[in-house]
Each structure stands twice: as C-alpha cells, then as structure tokens.
Specification:
Cytidine Deaminase, domain 2; zinc; zinc ion binding; Metalloprotease_DSAMP; about 140 residues; seven-stranded mixed barrel; 3 helices; 7 strands; alpha/beta; hydrolase
Length: about 140
C-alpha cells in the first residue's frame, strides 16, 4: 500500500471541511464513497454520520445501524466504500492512538481534517496493523 493515493472531488473535500467547521469543538465523521482501489481510490461523495462517541470532543464513533444504512445507500448508488473520515477540531491531522486502536477496515482510507488556522485534510490507509500516509489529490467535479 505504500504510495497509495486518495483522490477527492472538490465538492467532497469542501463537504468534509464545512462539516468540520459546523461540528465546532466536536469531531464529525462519515463514510467516503466512490471507487476503491488497492493503490488509488476516488471519492465522489461523502456521507455524514452521527458521532455517538461518549466524548465527541476527542473521539468519534458511528452508530453501527446508521453506518450499515449509509453503506447500503452507497452501494445502491453504484459506488463502493472508499473509507471513512473524521475531524480533529483541536488536534493534529495525524491519526491518534484512539484512531489506531479503533481502525477495522484494512486497505481502506481514513481521512482526517484538522483545523489549525486553516483546514488541512490528510489521509492514511489502514494496513491491519498501522496507518500508512497516502497522497491526497483533488479533482474538479
């Protein structure tokens, strides 16, 4: 997976950033939808999920039923799950220890949007043991 790329439509990127701002001091989260590949994935849409974590200021958790419904909707629209996203309103763009402990989809992207004066979106592929940073590229939609 080294050298993987996550391509996001400009509107998908903007949706994540705006959701992060709207979340205030709580993390927002959701599902990335598009085309999943072993070394390159394309995100065409994002689907926000409710953050049901016990401490939403420092972690995120998706309700399993809501996550399943989102995945069914993505697949019904002819797309695949590319991965997941969440924000770090007060933290770094890198995955936290909690992010590592809770990652469960090997080969999928985990995008993180952080806000430190300006929004920054980074992404990592989960190997099953660790996160590997991937290149984030935008395309016009």
């Amino acid at each position: 997976m080294t050298g993987s790329v996550l391509r996001l439509s400009r509107s998908a990127y903007d949706d994540i950033v705006h959701q992060g701002y709207d979340g205030g001091d709580e993390e927002v989260c959701g599902v990335l939808a598009g085309e999943h590949g072993d070394t390159e994935s394309v995100v065409r849409e994002v689907h926000r999920a409710t953050n049901v974590a016990d401490e939403p200021q420092v972690r995120y958790a998706m309700d399993p039923e809501e996550q399943f419904e989102i995945i069914e909707r993505v697949e019904a629209d002819g797309m695949a799950v590319v991965g997941f996203y969440h924000s770090h309103p007060a933290g770094p763009v890198q995955p936290s220890r909690t992010d590592v402990d809770r990652a469960t989809w090997p080969g999928y992207s985990y995008a993180i949007c952080a806000f430190d004066g300006y929004p920054y979106l980074g992404s990592w592929r989960w190997t099953g043991e660790t996160f590997e940073r991937e290149t984030v590229a935008l395309f016009a939609d």
